Amino acid sequence: MTRLVLSLVLSAGLVLPAHAREATSVRCPSTDSIRREILDQLRAIRAQARYCGRILFGPAKPLRWNQKLFLAAKIHAEEMSRRDYLSHRGLDGRRAGDRIVRTGYDWEVYGENIAQGQLTVSEAMRSWLDSPSHCSAIMEPDFEDVGVACASTGGGGSPYWAMVLAAPMTQARR
Fold it and tell me: Alpha-carbon distance 157 to 27, whole Å?
């Protein structure tokens, strides 16, 4: 039996920094930069106990970068940017779990964080950590893999971010 741990969203009005609203076109960091920075930050964040709202999470093991989860995040970030909307549901009705399956990742549990307007990995991470539900996804000990993408192909150039976290289906559950 598969389960969905979290499906989270930050509204654009809450996470769009003032300097991003003024920009007409903003470039996302490179994929290599995002991968390097996100893994470094996640390793440091998950290495320590952390409160996400009122819930205390103990330290969690480091996450691994997963190219399939990156592809699921990239597909969604690009669609949100191109169509200028912020939602976990794609315009085709699909959710993160559907996008993950389409990449060939056989998940047991997954979560997704999305955001709009942050210019750097650090800004996106800070926004997610400031939200109890997004922070909980980051600290969820069941997650093993992560992929993060940023796209700014439309929507006035405002960056759209998607973080997909998951754990693969175990042999016992197949």
Answer: 7
Query: Could you tell me which of 163, 57, 172 has the C-alpha nearest to residue 108?
Result: 172
Residue 153, SS3 per DSSP: coil
Tokens at 57, concatenated: 């999470």
Confidence bin at 17 (pLDDT 50/70/90): very low
Q: Phi and psi (nearest 5°) for 141?
A: -70, -20
Residue 145 C-beta-side C-alpha neighbours within 13 Å: 21
Q: How many CA atoms lie within 13 A of 107 on its CB side?
A: 29
The model carries a pTM of: 0.85
Q: In what order do the strands lie in the sheet with 64-65?
A: 3-7, 107-116, 160-168, 145-151, 64-65
Confidence of residue 171 (pLDDT cuts 50, 70, 90): low
Residue 141's CB is within 10 A of a number of other CB atoms, namely: 12
pLDDT tens for each residue of 118-138:
999 999 999 999 999 999 999
